[in-house]
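Cont'd.
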Amino acid sequence: MSEEPLVEVKAVTKRYGATVAVDGVSLTVDAGETYALVGANGAGKSTLIRSIVGITVPDAGDVRVCGEDTRRHASRAKRHIGYLPEELILYERLTGREYLQLVAGLKLAGAQQISQALDFFELDRVAGKWIGGYSLGMRKKLGLAAAMLGEPRVLVLDEPLNGLDVEMMRKLRKRIQAERDAGRALLISSHVMDFVERTADRVGIMSGGQLVAEGSPRALREQTGLHDSSFEDVFFRLAK
Amino acid sequence: MSEGGKLFLLASAELRDRWRWARQHLYALLILAPLVLGMTYWTLSRATSYDLVLEPPSTRIQIVLAILAVIAVIALNLSRASRELYHLRQPAIISEALPVERATHLHLALLARLGRTLAFGLLLVVLHSLWSERWATELMSLVALLLAVALITLSEIYAALNWIHWGSTRRKQDAGLALVVLLLAAALSGLLLHLFFNPLSAAKMADSLAVAVLLSAAQGGAPITYLIYAGGCLLAVVIYLLARTRHECWRARDIDYAQRLRQGSRLDLSVIGIFRRWMTESVMAMLARDLRLTLRTFSSAVYVAGGLCVLLLLMLLVLLMTNVLPSGPEFIGGLMAFGWASATWLPAVIAIKLCCLLAAASLASVLPVLVYYQLPHMWLERATGATGADVWKAKLWYARLVTLPVVLLVYAVGVLAGMMAGQGGGVPLTYVAPLLAECLWLWWLVSTAVGALAFEMPDRPELAIVLALTVSISTGALTAVLWPMGLAFYGMGFAQAAERGGARAHYYLATEAE
């Protein structure tokens, strides 16, 4: 692991009118680390993630990605990020391949990576078809393929498992481990606790816009004393 | 890759997506639209050649109308321009998380806007050729049009930028500056459009403009024309620079506000409870949902329809408060023999009725878009066991309720404007109440026609709009001239339309044919 974290969030606060969506959250993700962000709906996970990838500007606090301030040098910081949004809005009348060509062009990724991504996510058979005809799972796989193009140093995946079949979930978990081993930083938001426990090196639990607990899955188990229960029980205990 | 290259990639993806959409709608674009437009033009040209003898408005009114049209275009496109600028619910939103500079987002939005405004410009070229019976070939005339297109495009983006920023910050200084710049741009664009249609009217313009006092010293019209061109160029550059710097500063913060614009607000629709006796709870629930969606502008079609109503209202005001309409009794001549009832054919009364008809039809045409928007969510109706008749009835009442306020507004404005004009061209006092009855009758007929056809082509909203407008406007226009005809249409058509409407809605519920 390198000394400087690839993702550094310092006291980030984001308000929407009277609602505080994210309240003074700080966290870091190191190179070669998988950090899972969990929390109930409306806990502030997606807002925090959007602040990290530079889509939303926090009202207070700083976000640095690979040492670049996402507020001052947004474009430079984004060069290092591969992002899968929770809600994918795609060009319905572009083919899967054309969509990946667009993203690859914007991320300066080679054409070879497109073929590899299509192959890995088993999209080669439908790559020439319009995205409008894709199932939810295919769309998610296309989004994942687009996020991983350009070999970004930081991968931010918001609910990556929605719509994936069991086989693809397993494949994705292995891919995430491979990316981590290659020295990338991964920030994942998910509601699937089994996936979180098996994949993440560290877990951050959000509730009411705050980071209420943080640590490795084992450390969180020890903190609650729930050694034989499911990780879901650990989450509920800490989120309360 | 340079930012220019990224802009090219994003723009070509958008273009390819739209081109493929157009290929899917070849029938509507190449056959149906020219057919409907051609028939409309033919009917109008026949009417204006043989029946209506209207004096062309003065240069001053032409300029004012051109400026108002530009303001309306900018206002109508506020929502769409902000969607393009901030990629709201657009696939290009992905570029927000990619290394793309802010200026590229602005240029992408400008390109998208330019494409649409050029289409508007092309329409003006066609109108010009029809009007003057020759194609616009003078270089300066085309330059005027291109300059107007550029100014309108830039103004639309600048207006959208400031609209979102005003909502986000309520900063009066920025809004004030934007208002001044946009009014100036609208005035210059209006003048340029006027020059496009009347390339030789610069001297006349000089007489009509307040600034002409200063400019007329320049002897003749040409220097004024060049001043307008130069002013247009200068203002275009100023607006571009303003938009660019403002966008650079504001985008990061305003994008949040723009994205939240589509989220909910508090709306009290308990007023629809008064219709309880005419509909079941299920119909009322669907109706309340449809009205909420409309008030929360589920589609930019709502803005367009609302904007059209505003334009119609402005046109009515111009008609009633100027001497464009022929004066009453002389115009209808022998028809005055019908006594007080002959007021139904007075030009001002006909104008109010037609405006009511067109405004109601414009607003009701949101219905096909709403039905199309709801098709993917019809599982809710299926799961709750709603019948086809209930679903259809909800849409029918939706068309009626959405259009009622605008009809009453047009009526009130028309009657008041006619009274204020006081040129004998208004509504006679004895006919104020009967006119209300006529307007309400038109409203009922038009909204019922559009509502009844709600499920004819739910998956083709553009065709459904053409069908609904054709049926409603044609029956409404005949009824506006002779109101008892509406009774015949209603008596003959409604029972069958109700039966067919319920069956069509049932078909879509039963077959999941979305």
